[in-house]
Design goal:
Number of strands: 12
CATH architecture of the largest domain: 3-Layer(aba) Sandwich
Structural class: alpha/beta
CATH topology of the largest domain: Rossmann fold
Strand order of the largest sheet: 2-1-3-4-5-11
Low-confidence stretches: 1-13, 64-72
Helix content: 40-55%
Shape: elongated
Distance between the termini: 69 Å
Strand content: 15-25%
Radius of gyration: 24 Å
Largest sheet: 6 strands, parallel
Length: about 350
């Protein structure tokens, strides 16, 4: 068995803070610090406060891998996501878990929520180091990068790029451009877009791709044709939001003949709004979604295939190799360009 080696992407020459340092600063025994770290109830509130204050002051990170090795326990892999329930994240998680089934791993989930995600992640990391971390859908700030490097753990990022860590991301500009270029090729000249109300990097890049395809077809970019719903569930990438945004587009004095949606969930909601209004898809209005979730294939929704499951698998495989110290090469950046899947919702050539 190879000797233990660090698996973080960058070295850190700062002296390592130990449990002994925490105990000295808090004025307690090492066993007391251990009980606090293990969330034992046999510690008074005042003592717990002193220990936690010392931990924060020293920026101490418990070496959970070393503790597990001593206890003959399994390494811990954490997956941090904004949500576990959207079709996009469920598909990504499915790919990740395919390569964890045969491994003796303790699996932790960190729900980042829809607001204050950076704070939620920092709080999670302060509860104890992990052997590996998969971070989904969150930009890595300098503070978070510093936390990662101090953990001594393998890290993979999905949805964003960072030069210090393995990164897996999607070309949202090109994906959106291809979706809208398909609609212009089918003869559409008034094309709306259903976006999320959130101003995320992903959202901005998809709007850029939408604008680029319009310009390539000699069509103007009209801000009134870009609509968002008011429901903030799943950051606006929901059926409810798509339904509401489609209502806005249908209320325009000059109706759209096609709609590009930033997610399949929004597209499903938009489709329902059209159907309830007696508007035919694709004869009256064509629809293209984004993600290509399983349901889209059954209902005939054209969509941009992000290959979420396959990307999740790639990220998990590389992360596990770093956790096993089988891989010590520099961090890599993998970009996937979504592919258009044309189905009945847009397969109609206008005269």
């Amino acid at each position: 068995m190879p000797p233990e080696a660090p698996v973080c992407c960058l070295s850190d020459d700062r002296p390592k803070i130990t449990i002994y340092d925490v105990a000295r600063r808090a004025g307690v025994a090492i066993s007391t610090v251990s009980r606090v770290l293990n969330e034992s109830p046999d510690v008074s509130m005042e003592t717990r406060r002193r220990v936690n204050t010392a931990i924060e002051a020293l920026n101490f990170r418990p070496d959970r891998r070393a503790r597990q090795l001593a206890q003959q326990g399994a390494p811990t892999l954490a997956i941090a996501m904004p949500t576990l329930t959207t079709p996009f994240h469920a598909s990504l998680l499915k790919g990740i878990r395919l390569h964890l089934r045969e491994r003796e791993l303790d699996l932790l989930f960190c729900d980042l929520g829809s607001r204050e995600r950076h704070r939620a992640l920092i709080h999670f990391l302060h509860r104890g180091a992990v052997s590996g971390l998969l971070l989904v859908g969150l930009k890595v700030t300098e503070d978070i990068a510093s936390e990662f490097k101090s953990m001594g753990a393998a890290v993979a990022i999905l949805g964003y790029q960072h030069e210090d860590f393995d990164s897996y991301w999607w070309d949202d500009i090109e994906g959106a451009r291809r979706a809208v270029a398909h609609l212009t090729s089918m003869g559409h000249r008034r094309i709306g877009m259903i976006r999320s109300a959130s101003e995320s990097r992903t959202q901005i890049r998809r709007i850029d791709g939408y604008r680029s395809a319009l310009q390539a077809a000699g069509l103007p970019f009209d801000q009134t044709l870009v609509a968002a719903g008011t429901t903030d569930k799943h950051a606006g990438y929901s059926e409810e939001s798509g339904y509401e945004a489609m209502g806005t587009l249908m209320a325009l004095s000059e109706p759209v003949t096609a709609v590009f949606c930033a997610s399949d969930a929004q597209a499903m909601g938009a489709w329902l709004a059209l159907r309830e209004s007696g508007i035919r898809v694709p004869e009256d209005v064509a629809i293209v979604g984004y993600d290509d979730v399983k349901t889209s294939r059954y209902v005939g929704l054209s969509s941009m295939d992000q290959a979420m499951q396959q990307v999740g698998e790639l990220a998990a495989i590389r992360l596990l190799k770093r956790m096993d110290v089988e891989l010590d090469d520099p961090p890599s950046s993998f970009c996937h360009t979504p592919e258009l899947r044309i189905r009945s919702s847009s397969a109609f050539q206008r005269g």
